[in-house]
Amino acid sequence: MLQRIQRWAERRLPALTRYRRPESLPIELHRRRIYIVPSGFGIGFSVLLAVMLVGALNYANNAALLLTCLLGASSAASMLVAFRTLDGLRLSHIRAGHAVAGQSIELTIAFDSSRSRNAIRLDLADSRIAFALEANTSAQVKLTLPTVQRGWQPLPRLRLWSSWPLGLFRAWSWLHPDQSVLVWPRPETAGPSPHAPANDARHIRLHRGDELAALRDYRVGDPQRHIAWKASARHDNLMVKDFEQPQSRPQWQLDWRLLGGLDNEARIARLARWLNEAQAQRCSYSLWLPGNEIASSSGPLHYAHCMNALAQLP
Amino acid sequence: MRSPRKKLAELPIDTRAFDLLSLTMALVLGLHSTHLPWWLSIALALTLGWRWWQRRQQSGRVPRWLKLPLLALLTLAVIAQYGGIFGREPGAALAVGLLILKLLETETIRDVRVGISFACFALMTALLFDQGLIATVVVALGLLPVLATLRALEPGQLSTSLPRNLLPALALSTAALPLALLAFLLVPRLSSPLWGAPSPNQARTGLSDSMSPGNFTDLLTDDHPAMRVSFEGAPPPADLRYFRAYVMWNYDGRSWRYVDARHVRARETAPIEVGTSIQYRINLQPTQQRVLPTLDVPLQAPPQARLQPDREVMADKPVNDQLSYQLRSALQYRLQPVLDERSQRLGLRLPTGFNPRTLALAAQWRERYGSDNAAIVQAALNLFHDGGFRYTLAPAPLGRDAVDDFLFDTREGFCEHYSSAFTVLMRAAGIPARVVTGYQGGYWNKYGDYLLVRYSDAHAWSEVWLAGRGWVRVDPTGAVRPERVSLGAAAAAGDQLAWYRNDWLQGLRNRWDIVNRWWDQGVIGFDALRQRGLLTPFGIRDTDTATLGVLLAISSMLFIAVGLAWALLRRQPRDPLRDALRELERKLARKGIARRPAEGPQHYLRRAARALPGQRDELVKLMNNYLELRYAHAEPPPEPRHAFQRAVRDFRVVNVVK
């Protein structure tokens, strides 16, 4: 019900939604975009104040009247404090994490301010968080945003609000940063392996090479020149240098063109799964996409690069 | 579907919020404990402490099987104590009890908010019992934990210690004080209550309309102010400061009783011949009685009060709030020079079968002095003075023949005993006499120019009718203890002085009384009538409700404007380095070398150096300094910055001679 009214208000009252248009960062809050209304508790409290006022007047009790006036004036002053909690606050930047479609993406939103502020709350979609800011520092607020499909997903509006200090008033402002987050494609759950070179490297995982890998106990048949004399002097038994050659990691060539007979999304999902597998097996891989060719490499950066390329396919 | 805000209010609270809430509740309980029965206060305090401890161990609501019996127990206790749940005392006791029980089920933000709202109300009810300055200040301080608790409910705060939680609340309420005072001045007062009669404000009863031996003792030890009197001109001398309240004719052998003129056939107001008179104003504390004490014999009654046959003043309604009235009284007078037959009869009436020895003594005097009534009065006073009588606030109890026991056996007592015995003696001797109660003495506060009369100044004396002189005041207590008349009851009690009654403390109390008087008159006594005269200094004689409303609205706007100005105030972070550069630019611009909008400092100062070859080195140095300070550090170090600022200040553009 409330949400329907809200939607109606946004449609019908453009003045309230003047800032719906996305705007570029940084965004600084100022008086023309901070709204303030009494909260439900505030309305209840004002009823209490009215009761106290009438009671004090009726019994001609001036001390009680003074108390009521003091409480009322404090409540009114708290409205200004609520306003000041938001006024001048700056949203400096937003950093997004990585997530595949359907998962929640983590956003790091940085605020800064010249004053210290308390109990600022941030609502984004379904996640809410409250934070405080010290003077002249920056606060990093982490939020999660659910994603639906791969590709660029524009950030929804953020609601920045506060009922500081007494919870009687609710000041809020809508922020609509002109920023999108890139959502990676969701990999398919099962499917064939990529057309890769014979994947029997596991059997030759350990074989003699040139690189010193470790010291181990002497076994009959070890060549004499491999005995580590110095190390053996410190131990009871003979130590042998164990040599290993780096595992020859397989080269995977992941190619869009080889996945004929599938539609685009299915191809993307398969490539995403292969990328995951390649990353898990720590082999190096290259990726060919229409209009984008990524040379063979490995590591998390390379993985992110490839996934980004996949995500941005039309 | 539940709205998200509802879910927010149901979040559990943290320990700090609960501690502050407990503090608030403890304060409310403390404020009310002055009038709650002691066992209820202790039980509630224990409940509060237990709940606080219990929630520290493990949070969670107290189970219902414990809560409901407690609730029933509380209600029963209140009914057992007061005989009902309606009224001021039982209502307040129930409210405080419910407040403490609310704590048992306080777990969520919503619970705390409900509890705090209720606590505000309970704080206010504490003022129904005592609206003195100290009580009001303490109650107002009770708002601090209230505000701090509400603050503590907001999530996402910088953490502070518990006392530091109270400071912002203090700041907030201090900032709100001007607006509160303004609202207090301008909120239109009701000239008559909307519902019900205002409940009694104070438990103190003051003088009672009957007098039996011993019922003054509580009064005589009560040091609270009864009234404050300011005189036009000099105050009357100490021995004339008799404030009459009740004139009592009826004696039943045990107690003297005032008979309201409404209940008997009306007599005419006693005529009076006036010598000198004095004008004064009395500010009376609430007594819940109709009697208005007056200095000696008043000439007329103040508004909304009537003069009784013996020139006592009775208000039309009981005095439930502070009352201020102006009067003129006679200091030298002849009251009722001719005694009518009915008064004569009343003034001589004694109950039969009481006090035979007293009657015998009176008959003996009558024989000895013949018709000289004044001599008989003097004989009685001599008896009190020389007969081994003692003034004490704790006399031995008296039997059935109270006056006989007092005159011939115990010989100790205070004003009631003396005035009662004296009046009986006079009546027995055939002299019309009556007992008068009221106040005598008082403390002259020279800083405030007013006479403070306390309940402990309550006094009883006699009036005898003498031919040609009318009713004459005789104070038999003065015969026993002259200090009672000149210095007051406390001095007369002599050896019974408590340590806290020594001189400097008394002096301190009297100075403090000025503050109380100011509070009573300025704040408590600021009623509808005074409010209407609020604007008299500005030429508006009668401020009606509409004007007050408009004034309130306008001045609230003013305050809101001030508040908004504060809220909108934004301090730009100062950049001393840029300011210094601006100063340099101004100096150069005066010589025609203005900085172009798109020009950086380096380019600009180079250009300036070319234009002023005589100061080339100086300018280049300044430029290098500036660039170094601006771009080599994130934050310019203070020492070189000061040097740069000084260099800019000392820089003088020398006129180029071309």
Keyword list:
heterodimer, A: 314 residues, alpha+beta, five-stranded antiparallel β-sheet, four-stranded antiparallel β-sheet, 16 strands, 29% helix, 31% strand, elongated, B: 658 residues, six-stranded antiparallel β-sheet, 25 helices, 50% helix
Topology:
The complex is a heterodimer of chains A (314) and B (658).
Chain A (H helix, E strand, L loop, with lengths): L1 H11 L14 E2 L6 E4 L1 H19 L3 H25 L3 E7 L7 E10 L3 E8 L2 E7 L3 E10 L4 E4 L3 E5 L6 E7 L4 E4 L27 E7 L11 H5 L5 E6 L6 E5 L8 H18 L2 E6 L2 E6 L2 H12 L3
Parallel strand pairs in A: 14-15
Antiparallel strand pairs in A: 1-3, 2-10, 3-4, 4-7, 5-6, 5-9, 8-11, 9-10, 12-13, 15-16
Chain B lengths: L3 H6 L5 H18 L5 H20 L6 H19 L5 H17 L4 H21 L3 H9 L1 H10 L9 H25 L23 E2 L5 H4 L4 E7 L10 E7 L1 E2 L4 E2 L14 E3 L2 E8 L6 E2 L1 E2 L1 E2 L6 E3 L5 E3 L7 E8 L2 E3 L5 H8 L7 H14 L3 H14 L3 E2 L10 H9 L1 E2 L1 H14 L4 E8 L2 E3 L4 E5 L3 E9 L3 E5 L1 H5 L1 H5 L2 H4 L10 H22 L3 H5 L12 H24 L7 H15 L10 H11 L4 H16 L6 H13 L8
Parallel strand pairs in B: 15-16
Antiparallel strand pairs in B: 1-5, 2-7, 2-19, 3-9, 3-17, 4-5, 6-14, 7-13, 8-12, 10-13, 11-12, 17-20, 18-19, 20-21
Helix pairs in contact in B: 2-3, 2-5, 2-6, 2-8, 3-5, 4-5, 5-6, 6-7, 6-8, 8-9, 9-21, 12-13, 12-15, 13-15, 14-15, 22-25, 23-24, 24-25
What is the radius of gyration of chain B computed over CA atoms, rounded to a whole number of angstroms?
38 Å
List low-pLDDT spans of chain A: 197-207
Main pleated sheet of chain A: 5 strands, antiparallel
Class derived from helix and strand content of chain A = alpha+beta
Structural shape of chain A: elongated
Number of helices, where a helix is a run of at least 4 consecutive DSSP H or I residues of chain A: 6
Structural classification of chain B: alpha+beta
Strand neighbour order, sheet with most strands of chain A: 2-10-9-5-6
How many β strands of chain B by DSSP? Answer: 21
The percentage helix of chain B is 40-55%
Query: Roughly what fraction of the amino acids of chain B lie in strands?
Result: 5-15%
User: Globular, elongated, flat, extended or rod-shaped: what is the shape of chain B?
Assistant: elongated
Helix content of chain A: 25-40%
- State the end-to-end CA separation of chain A: 38 Å
The mean pLDDT of chain A is: 82
Q: Give the spatial strand order of the biggest sheet of chain B.
A: 10-13-7-2-19-18
What is the residue-mean pLDDT of chain B, rounded to a whole number?
A: 83
For the largest interface, the chains and their residue counts are:
A-B, 61 and 68 residues
Structural Rg of chain A: 32 Å
Fraction of residues in β-strands of chain A: 25-35%
